[in-house]
Amino acid sequence: MKNCIIIGNGKSPRKDIIEYLRMENYSKIICADGGANSARKLGIVPDFIIGDLDSISERTLKFYKSKSIIIKIKRQNDTDIEKCLKFAIRKNIQNVVMTGVTGDRLDHTICNLGIVLKYFTKINIRIISERSLLTAYKGNVEIKTCPGEIFSLYGINEKTKITSKGLKYSLNRVSLPFGKKESTSNVALSDFVSLKITGGIIFVIRDFNTVKKHGLF
Question: What integer pLDDT is reported at residue 1 of this predicted model?
Answer without folding.
Answer: 67
